[in-house]
Amino acid sequence: MNILGLNYIYHDSTACIVKDGKLVIALEEERLTRQKHTSAFPEHAIARCLEVAGMTIKDIDHIAISYRPRLDLSKKVIYGMRMGRRMKAFTEFELSQDMSKRRQLRMWLSSTFGKGKMPKVHYVPHHEAHVVGSFFVSPYESAALLSVDGAGEWATTFKGVGRGNTYECLSQDFFPWSLGIVYEAATEFCGFRTNYDEGKTMGLAPLGNPETYGKIVEKMFWVNDDMSIGVDLSYFDFQRYYAHRCGKKFYEAFGQPRARSKSAKFEQNHLDVAAAFQKQLEECILKMARLLHERTKEDYLVISGGVSLNSVANGRLVRESGFKDLYVMPAAGDNGTAIGAAYYVYNSVLGHPRNFVHDDPYIGTEYGNDVLRRLLDECKLTYRQLPDGELEREAAMLLHRGDILGWFQGRMEIGPRALGNRSILADPTLPGMKDKINAQVKHREAFRPFAPSCPIEDTPRFFEQNVADPFMLKVCMVLPEKQKVIPAVTHVDGTARLQTIHKETNPRFHQLLKEFEKVSGVPVLLNTSFNVMGEPIVESPMDAIRCFYSTGLDHLVLGNYVVSKNNSA
């Protein structure tokens, strides 16, 4: 039983293959086309997935799409007519997009299968693909379910409960009652790209004072006692004209927005707006989760959707929601709906028992040492080959002396976070390292923090975290006495977006951390994605080489090969 899961409706187009309930491979289209957050039909990802899986398209029995055409169509049409010309134009655009996306699939199916037998196509509602699919690959036999994003079809949330391979929807919210889009208004005000740069807003928030605009923001959006979302739409414009999030009243309340330019200065009102919106978003998600916990009596929470990438809010859920822990898929945004849709079909539609836990994010492409060596020779690069064990010791020494490494190993991880296989690594004990990487390597805003990676067994020595976080999606506090020890990964508010490293899933990265501890006394490394701002994470060794030579990286570690810009290294 082979299922091809696809997402290409909104953004982050992705393909995956599930064989007899096991996730064989999942790939984001952007990694192959180098177009970040692309919504193009994922034909390159499909082809590579089939290649890695050793299949042809004729081996596929079912295709799962993370979108159900015409779902809530009447709501869209009525809303568009009621809101007037500008929203009517948006609604018409949505309908044309709906038709366009279905046409793309039909054309691909026709060109691929001709008049031959086609797989059965399943259209899975967007939020079910998000959170029900996530539940089916979670480690929990039963759990509360929460999906929160901008909008999928017309819904903006899904609140429910899952047990075994069944689920129940308790309630949903619908456009324009959206926490995701409201948070996008703060992103727009701070001069960032909406539905793209919300992580920047989250990172900017600790620099501001949430109390300055706290009372106003509390009245702008909230969660009611029945778990529904409330929004004072008078502050916003998205409900009438989706391209603009902020309305006239928004600017009257908060002042002049920041220009959308990397060089534009951040004024205090921009920092304070980010802080207030971040705090209120956390309070809303926390209240929703507490009410869900009270209603379902479940011990665990599965959360998904774009808002679940807000790792600061997730950290508070771990500490304050009443749940023992939560599961967030590594690709918790729309990219993960390809996986979710496939498992929705396998477990819910086809009724197969659950037999897979998605606790390993390294499910992408891989390049062996033979391939890496041929490429290095073709590029006429000078390199050193080191055996296992010696490679990790050498890399640890280079990091300890202050060098910055591009680290390219094994199978590529999925999702927006580099998790130790397509990473840029550095010594977190050096106070100036954060600024150096932002300026010379990543070419991005100076305020943006970097994450620490630490072996799971060493986590209590440095972080106030009592649960695993292999996907870097739960922000925690750095122990007060350790904040000056690892300043390059400690944010201004004393927090860190920790990744716990598990020897079972990534033995090489785990060993590197242990080797770094031997020379530095600290089993923690600064870990950021192997890319520069505006580009996807590198997929191929050629991508890695290009990034290496266009940035301030000192060394590139490709498999068992080390390339250095300084030949004396």
Can you offer a commentary on this structure?
This protein has three domains: 2-127, ATPase, nucleotide binding domain (Nucleotidyltransferase, domain 5, 2-Layer Sandwich), CATH 3.30.420; 139-328, ATPase, nucleotide binding domain (Nucleotidyltransferase, domain 5), CATH 3.30.420.40; 369-564, DHBP synthase. The chain starts with a strand and ends in a 5-residue tail after the last strand. Strand 9 and strand 10 (229-231) form a beta hairpin. An eight-stranded mixed beta sheet has the order 13-23-22-14-15-21-16-20, sandwiched between helices. It has 569 residues and is α/β, with parallel strands linked by helices. Helices cover 36% and strands 19% of the residues.
What's the helix and strand layout?
Blueprint: E1 2-7, E2 14-19, E3 22-28, H1 29-33, H2 43-53, E4 62-65, H3 73-83, H4 85-113, E5 120-123, H5 126-136, E6 142-152, E7 155-163, E8 166-171, H6 179-189, H7 198-204, H8 214-218, E9 221-223, E10 229-231, H9 248-254, H10 268-296, E11 300-304, H11 311-320, E12 325-327, H12 337-349, H13 369-378, E13 384-385, H14 390-400, E14 405-408, E15 422-426, H15 433-442, E16 451-455, E17 463-464, E18 476-478, E19 495-496, E20 499-501, H16 507-520, E21 525-529, H17 541-549, E22 555-558, E23 561-564
Parallel strand pairs: 1-4, 4-5, 6-11, 11-12, 14-22, 16-20
Antiparallel strand pairs: 1-2, 2-3, 6-7, 7-8, 9-10, 13-23, 14-15, 15-21, 16-21, 17-18, 18-19, 22-23
Helix pairs in contact: 3-4, 5-12, 6-10, 10-11, 14-16
